[in-house]
Design goal:
Layout (H helix, E strand, L loop, with lengths): L1 E6 L6 E5 L12 E7 L4 E10 L2 E10 L3 E7 L4 E10 L1 E5 L2 E5 L4 E6 L5 E5 L3 E11 H10 L1 H12 L5 E4 L5 H13 L6 H20 L5 H19 L6 H8 L3 H12 L3 H19 L4 H7 L5 H12 L3 H16 L1
């Protein structure tokens, strides 16, 4: 559970609660939104996407008057990675006061119930994206990228607060953070895409902090991230495996093997999931015929589309559409 307390002048504090990943067992890859507005004071908007035991939180603040925000979490320790994507703010983290502007990057270990204080000056306006990786998720990443994540492992067992600021002059981390921000605002988050961006941010932070060469497997993984991005943009008419491998600079064998290792899904099944997600949205939100949707998604016939859709949702496209319309009618009545 996340708790935020907003105090502005003499007004009564406003408290905001958001669940953490462990509160949403059985409901992964969820997006939650909340907004708090204090009259003539501060407007705070939060949007949280969850993937496994990691939360990606977007915050937008506008302080009409000077105010203070305190927030904490109550579950397990977490590796916190945050980037100011626009504006600037003054924060107190583990007793240290720091000024953050656009592109400012901070990493640290946040213990349960430790308080993070932010002082917002009058007319302060900024956006921030934060990754809160639980210790249990951290261990999973550490197995996959031990050269990178093991450098933070000792801080989980250390009682001394850990905080580290990073200056990324290349702009790669800010770009990835903004892509994460866009992902949190998407209608349906792609967990593989979010996971890739999290790794992108932290691996580049490692490279900057320690001035060491990036691990060998990182370069292979970057190619697989790129392959996934190509599929995200072209799943309705995807390239062949040979074309995809050539596009990202690897071979078919490596593409298939590492893609499955990284995302626990084959390239074919990944494309199919993207198609089915798109199909469900079109069936629910558009008036297009089922035949037109099948053609738009690259299926050779409506019957092939129906077979694939039933395999994913255990309903035919018509049954799915009729069910969604039935729910809509219930809401209206």
């Amino acid at each position: 559970m996340y708790k935020a307390i907003l105090t502005c002048g003499e007004a009564n504090p406003v408290t905001l609660f958001l669940p953490s990943a462990c509160d949403l067992k059985g409901n992964p890859d969820t997006i939650l939104s909340s907004s708090v507005s204090m009259r003539d004071g501060c407007v705070m908007t939060s949007r949280v996407a969850f993937h496994n035991q990691t939360a990606v939180m977007y915050n937008n603040y506008y302080a009409r008057k000077a105010c203070t925000l305190e927030h904490c979490r109550y579950d397990e320790k977490a590796l916190i990675f945050s980037v100011i994507t626009s504006g600037k703010v003054c924060e107190i983290i583990n007793g240290h006061q720091v000024e953050h502007g656009e592109g400012s990057i901070n990493m640290g270990i946040m213990s349960p119930e430790s308080v993070h204080i932010m002082h917002l000056a009058e007319q302060c306006k900024f956006e921030k994206i934060s990754v809160m990786m639980s210790e249990s998720d951290f261990k999973k990443y550490n197995k996959q990228y031990p050269m990178v994540f093991s450098s933070f492992e000792k801080h989980f067992n250390d009682t001394t607060p850990y905080l580290n600021g990073i200056e990324d002059h290349s702009g790669k981390i800010l770009e990835a953070a903004r892509n994460l921000q866009n992902a949190v605002f998407s209608h349906s988050i792609n967990p593989y895409y979010v996971e890739g961006l999290i790794v992108e941010c932290i691996v580049n932070s490692y490279h900057i902090k320690y001035n060491k060469p990036l691990p060998d497997n990182y370069f292979v993984c970057r190619k697989i991230f790129k392959a996934r991005d190509v599929l995200n943009d072209n799943f309705q008419n995807p390239p062949t495996l040979r074309e995809l491998a050539a596009t990202v600079g690897t071979n078919e064998c490596t593409l298939k093997k590492v893609f499955k290792q990284m995302f626990s899904i084959t390239v074919f099944d990944y494309i199919n999931d993207l198609r089915m997600d798109k199909a469900a949205r079109l069936l629910a939100d558009s008036g297009k015929s089922i035949n037109d949707i099948a053609a738009e998604l690259g299926f050779s016939s409506q019957s092939h589309f129906t077979t694939a859709f039933r395999k994913r949702y255990e309903l035919t496209p018509k049954e799915y559409r009729d069910g969604k319309r039935g729910l809509l009618n219930l809401k209206i009545n």
